[in-house]
Amino acid sequence: MKLHSMLFGLIALGLTPFAAAQQPIVIKFSHVVATETPKGKAAEFFKKRAEELTGGKVKVEVYPNSQLYKDKEEMEALQLGAVQMLAPSLAKFGPLGVKEFEVFDLPFIFDGYADLHKVTKGPIGAGILKKLDSKGIIGLAFWDNGFKSFSANTPIRTPADLKAKKLRIQSSKVLEEQMRSIGALPQVMAFSEAYQALQTGVVDGTENPHSNMYTQKMHEVQKHMAVTDHGYLGYAVIVNKKFWDGLPADVRGQLDTAMKESTEYANQIAREENDNSLDGIRKSGKTQVYVPTADERLAFKRVMVPVHKKMEGRIGRELIDAIYKETAFDPSKL
Q: What is the pTM of this model?
């Protein structure tokens, strides 16, 4: 009788059992950057692999460039189930109450990708992602963007060159403290508004990986850039927990595989794209690119690393020390 009732219900809705079974599971994947960026390309790669591996059971709709939601809106949209998947920058999780993610914003805590991946691909990273469960969110993976450079309309050789400059940052208490450490004035602003703010002089400069700067054409309204690699910008790919837990086990397994493949692709393309974008910035002739000497970079490091200590109460000293141990970083030797 139950089966007959179910069939009658489907027919009443205008669906045959076959048609109902064929309805794909839709994943709306929203992000705020251009399709040509590492994150944009990785999202498209995930769409392709998810649809292939599930044999069309899943349809992934990717919405780039803040088409659906801006920086400040997308997390709430995910929690409400308006979208199923995001890849926010790691700074976005502090306001959500998971301050451990802010460890990734600490200046000079990673001396390159090898150190970084010891954390993001290891138990420390897995432990940080797990803390999202209580927020109705599941963390699937970390995706790289790259290491950041400073830009301004005046030459940047020393920390003093950025003193009193209004520098755009994303919302992050750690990044605010980082900018104050070099005497700059942090200006919190949505990523989608940064180009116009630089163009009109509302802000004097910013910090970004090269791919973000190039694809958003920020280099066209900035005269100088210093390749300081002072901070890391990465993303956590996250899904609505209720949605993810409700998926059929086989589909969830296939999506896990698609995400693993996409993460390898994302991290590889991030390095390539940032190198290519730096090339593009140089060739444009609009921004003078400066690579600091080892001593000049050390001067930035000495001024900015004390931010780690200041942020211990917010992020957690144990977590910072665990990363120091994992990467063999000793701030006392600077």
A: 0.86
